[in-house]
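Thread: Newbie trying to understand structure tokens

Hi all, I'm a second-year student working on a class project, and my supervisor (Dr. K.) asked me to get a predicted structure for one chain before our next meeting. I've only ever worked with sequences, so writing a 3D structure as a token string is new to me. If someone could post the tokens and maybe explain what I'm looking at, I'd be very grateful. Here's the chain:
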Amino acid sequence: MPCYAIDGLSPVVHPSAHVHPTAVLIGDVIVGPDCYVGPCASLRGDFGRIRLMAGANVQDTCVIHGFPGSDTVVEANGHIGHGAVLHGCVVRHDALVGMNAVVMDEAEVGAYSIVAACAFVRAGLKLPEKSLIAGLPAKVMRPLTEDEIRWKREGTETYQDLARRCHASLVEVSPLAEEEADRPRLQIGGPKTLVATRREDDGSA
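---
Reply by user tm_fold:
Sure, no problem. This is what the structure looks like when written as tokens:
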């Protein structure tokens, strides 16, 4: 993986974590056990510290950065969807930040909460636990149901399993010229879609 030291500080990656070879880690970045960092993610610890705690995932093309002296933290089992941006903020344990959402400096996403896709969490906003957060700017829409919290947990477990799968079988190959006869399908369990993704809830309407 592209890993760079700056001012004598090198990234730290736990052996059980998987960081995709196209992700970039710079400086004061600490990736904990069982984490997953997806393709083309940028974790740039050249001003402040970035910490991913046990079981967190940061998916494709995410950007994590912060101002000088800041800490950007994704706590245990945090789940950061494709294309999200975190800047000098804290995502508490078991929370989810949806695809293309932005969480700004000194904001905190409460434990077990879900930030909907494309939401904008303004700087300094402290969000409660177990809540659905959506909008531009983001606001609390309603409490989460136990089914939604379970759905999020199952999705995060799928990414923890993906880290293990990558360690076991991810290899760079040349593409095949033709599809094989009787091409097998991946046998992967995962969470089913919930009503939490409805337009009226996620602010996408």
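A couple of things are worth pointing out once you decode it. The first strand starts at residue 3 and ends at 4. The chain has two helices and 19 strands. Feel free to ask follow-ups in this thread.
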